[in-house]
Amino acid sequence: MVSILRLHGVRTRARFGALATVPVLALALAGCGGAGGSPSGSGAARSPDPKGSAAAGAGAPGAPAAPRSGSRLEKAALEQGDLAGYQISAQGKNPEAPKGQPQADKKQCQPLADIMGDQPDPAARETVNRGVGSQKQVGLAVSASVSSYAAADAERLLSRLEQAVAACGAGFSATVDKHSGAYREVKPVAYKAGGDASVSWTTTATAEGVSAHVHLVVVRQGSTVVRLMALDVTGAQQKPEVPHEVTDKQLEKVRATLG
After folding, report:
1. pLDDT tens per residue across span 112-126
2. CB-based burial, 18-41: b 16+ in 10 Å, e otherwise
3. Is-above-0.90 flag for pTM?
């Protein structure tokens, strides 16, 4: 299993133990090797790195590099070396993270709950996940995934997400594996992305009294869907944005590999 981030020693471990109950944060925090360390609960607690934990975490044990072989979808996903200034790891689930797809308390918000689970939604045929840790911006973690769909299902997903973002501005809650989290202030945001269609929004995720701002971008390229989720893990309540260079590189690989 890949590490939980170790930005601030024991306090950070406790904070993200709580955030692991929020589906999106559990996914986004798993495997971000650019700011990672040892798995939660293992090894000695580390003190903060004065030069920036994101840089210090590059190549850290417990954050395996993304594989260079496998299915075509695996080859279309980001891998270490694709982006200068980022550590990319194969994204295993945090052992403390809930399993399965989140269930929203409001039917109209279910697409937003689904997109934060193990797969963008149940219609996905295959999903490959990556953790992307920034060595440029301390604390920025991005979860990137590539999923294959039937063409009609991919188009339907983007349409359902647009409708859900418009309908769920007041927020919703979601439960997975008996763990619950809340998402409030769901807001569409402008974000220039390539591909055939895209949708972008922000929300604030909360679990066990701990909260974090999240930025999500979903892009369709043919029958392939790219999902990107960014958050700042320093606890400073900064509002992160998915770096365009990450989005652009992922879409470039999708087009080159899958057509």
Report:
1. 999 888 788 899 999
2. bbbbbbbbbbbbbbbbbbbbbbbe
3. no
